Every structure is written in C-alpha cells, then in structure tokens.
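We emphasize that the prediction below concerns an isolated chain of 131 residues; any contacts that depend on oligomerization or on bound cofactors are therefore not represented. The input was used exactly as deposited, without trimming of termini.
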Amino acid sequence: MPGGSATRVPLCPASLDSFLARRFFQALDFEIGAENSCPDGVCLARLRRRSQAIIEAGRVAEEAVLQWGIDNVGRANQLWIDNGGEILALSDEDRAAMNQTFKAVSDRILSEDPEVAAEYEKLLGVVEAQR
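Result of the prediction step, given as a token string:
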C-alpha cells in the first residue's frame, strides 16, 4: 500500500457476504443439530446443499472482486498522496479504543430489538464454538 502504513486489507462486501452466509448456516446447523428433519418439513440435507451453494457463490464473488478491491484502495490512497494528502496509521492504543467504541455501539444497536438480539446471540455462539 502507498505510504507503507497499511497493515490490513479492508473486508470487501463480497467477503462479508461469504462470511455471513457461512455463519448463518453454521448457526442453522447448530440450532437444528444432527437430526434428520428440519422445521416445515425441509430436510437437513437440502439445507446443507443450499448452504454450500451459497458459500461457494460467495467465494466466487469474493475471488472476483478481492484483487479489484485491494487495487482500488491502493489507487485511492495514491491519489490522496499525489494531491497532498497524508495517510496516518492509528497507534495500537488508539486502534484498541476505536474497536472498543465500535463494539459498545454495535452491541447497543443489536440489543435494541429482542428478535435481532436473539439471532445475534446465536451467531456469537457459533463464532465462539469455532474459535
């Protein structure tokens, strides 16, 4: 990256879609378990096939736009620098404070709606189980 200060590649929307699809279907499997039947008579095998198709489509989309996204950030950074701008990196302390603020705000927003909060808790359970 221009300026040598960037250490992370931002998550592009296709990456996020792929990530969310994986987490959604992991949560679904976690909720349903290894039983042979699912809600509304939909079989678990069909759900797993669909989840795999969604994950694969997300990966294809991610691969298609990942390099473009990286290059685009590089071009934007270079344009900024070429026009007199400066790219500053946050200190570890400032980055930790920013992440703490983001977490507090997102936790508050996600907990406002009980239905959303319940889904969020399920997803957190899946993420924690995968660590």
